[in-house]
Amino acid sequence: MQVLHQEKGTFLRNIMGHHSHPTGCLAPGFSATTLGMDVRPQTQLLGVLLAAASNFLISVSLSIQKCAHLRLACQTEPKPYYTSKLWWCGIILLVLGEVGNFTAYGFAPIALVAPLGCVSVIGTAFISVLFLKQTMRAADILGGTLAVAGTYLLVTFAPNVPQELTARRVQNNLVSWPFLVYVILEIITFCILLYFYKRKAVKHIMILLMMVALLASLTVIAVKAVASMITLSVKGKMQLTYPVFYIMLILMATSCVFQVKFLNQAMHLYEATAVVPINFVFFTTSAIVSGVIFYQEFQSAALLSVFMFLFGCLLSFLGVFVIARNKKEEHLQVPYIDCGRIPGQKLTGKIQPDSYSSRYGTLNNEDDSVKTQS
Asked: What is the pTM of this model?
């Protein structure tokens, strides 16, 4: 009987050991992943909050810089923008926002951090009403509502993946066949676009922003790897001694430089209202694809979660386009002087307002004949 009682007690202890632990934690060999629970929900939530706050900070910084430029332009003797304390305040906030965005990649998946860039677009549209005294449009309210709804779906149905991204895992992902195929296709596509850009002088907005997006996909892969390895090193798991850390660091810096180069070219040739929404869509799409291929972020996600996540992306894209539309028409309503209507002038060009002053563009005061005729 004593033997039977001992065996019964052992059997019960074995059963209980699979479900509980004396300290209240899960027993060894029975992880939270097996139960379908999120391993680190607080870590991912920290990344979401950090990314959202950083993008909002970026929108505030851009509005502050614009406000500083307008104040300098209204002065009788315009000074260089770098002498303005307000402008430097905007630059500091911009740097803090970019650092926060970089750090967010160390805590949350790429597919979750990248789409949160719409917070910057929403913030800029609403903050400009306060800082720049612009009029709140119905399109801004509608676009903001769509983008907020999309952001909610993104955060709710984002993939839950372990964030322990070690240097060895990055090395294994670099030589995996899905990523190698992806890189080969990306290089071929980039070379074709670069051929049309350089040889054929085709500077269409789609070609420029597609090259930016291809470079951005490499940038986010490198940024996530570098940020994650730095985060683990700070926690005590040193990852900075591996050569792959410096490889990803060089890849991040190089892709960023060329990405900024082509983006500036697009901003120079086209209106910002066209560049911003298209670049947001291309960047977010390329970032999500690169996260899926390199980090397998949707590997164990349910079909409904993937569908709702993509629907959230679509709502965010639509919201950004609604906010950006009709901005160009408002910009072109600025009055101008038509030289064709001035007596004695055969010019048909238009003198736009001087960007360095608050007055409208005028003719040269030294032209006495024109002054007399006027």
From this structure: 0.70
